[in-house]
Write a structure and sequence with these properties.
Length: about 300
């Protein structure tokens, strides 16, 4: 039996290249999709670069909140740049192929940046919690060293979590099946094509997903819950409405990001959830990075005043 299995594996052709099926048979709509995703990409880059430039230029924006915002903007630029340029190339040329190592690297960088964003969003919500609910301790707790340490920790944890998966992924064998039913090389659609035993890597992926998503989601939601509670104690109705509007918009974006992540990486990948994976992936991989600059920064009064002064 072992000899038969070994000879069967030898007779299979090992895949060195994959085909990204994208959004299905859209050959007649390639130009439309190219223009649509190009607009998404330009808006994402413009909004996030604007935040980075403003924070660098204006000295009074050199505070922990804007430090985290500029790091989030930089992260979003890298995050979308791992997937959208390849999609644009596919729509423009019609060539949907991607090499095995190119696919693994795309998955690695995309997932690492996604895990880092989870921890960075938690750090940002904790920063706002300290500023609003613990103002007397804010300066001592959230100093320059603390901010840098939180950002570095977010990146290191994200890198370590995904590196474990990537190392296991490189040990898998891919044969016969070469069509990835997705618009980029995501983890779940990729391992479905492997002819190796994926039980270990699937369990490890579930553990890393829990470690990356659940604790950070709990910290983020808890922080905003305490912030909302503090806002309700504000006596000024106008001030309460402004603060509530800002926090609720932040919480909406965070909920969309985490909700779609949970549905893709933690919920079962069969049945309806499997069919809707592309839609949920679109939410956290393209939509959220595009709207984050507008929600977190461009609705901010200080940012709007600076932009108005520059334009005038």
């Amino acid at each position: 039996m072992k000899f038969e299995k070994h000879s069967e594996l030898q007779n299979t052709t090992r895949i060195k290249e994959f085909i990204l099926l994208g959004f299905g048979n859209t050959e007649n709509l390639d130009t439309l999709f190219f223009l649509l995703f190009l607009i998404f990409y330009i808006v994402t880059l413009s909004g996030n670069f604007l935040i980075i430039i403003l924070v660098m230029m204006e000295k009074h924006l050199h505070t922990p909140m804007y430090f985290f915002l500029s790091n989030l903007a930089c992260l979003e630029i890298c995050y979308t740049s791992t997937t959208i340029p390849k999609m644009l190339a596919i729509f423009l040329s019609g060539k949907k192929t991607i090499s095995l190592w190119g696919c693994i690297l795309q998955m690695h960088f995309f997932s690492t940046l996604g895990a880092t964003e989870c921890y960075l969003l938690a750090a940002m919500s904790y920063d706002r919690y300290l500023a609003i609910c613990r103002p007397l301790h804010y300066v001592t707790l959230m100093n320059g060293k603390s901010c840098i340490l939180l950002v570095l920790t977010s990146g290191i944890i994200g890198f370590l979590l995904i590196s474990v998966l990537t190392s296991l992924l490189t040990q898998l064998t891919f044969c016969n099946q070469y069509k990835i039913d997705h618009f980029f090389c995501d983890f779940t659609p990729l391992i479905r094509l492997s002819c190796s035993d994926t039980w270990v890597i699937e369990r490890v992926a579930l553990i890393t997903s829990f470690l990356g998503i659940i604790p950070t989601f709990f910290v983020t939601v808890s922080s905003y819950a305490f912030i909302m509670q503090a806002i309700m104690k504000i006596q000024s109705v106008n001030g309460r409405e402004k603060a509530f509007s800002t926090c609720s918009s932040h919480l909406t974006v965070v909920s969309i990001f985490y909700g779609s992540l949970m549905l893709v990486y933690i919920m079962p990948t069969t049945g309806k959830f499997r069919d809707m994976n592309k839609s949920f992936s679109f939410l956290y991989s393209i939509l959220t990075p595009m709207v984050n600059p507008f929600i977190y920064s461009l609705r901010n009064r200080e940012i709007k005043i600076i932009i108005r002064n520059i334009l005038c």
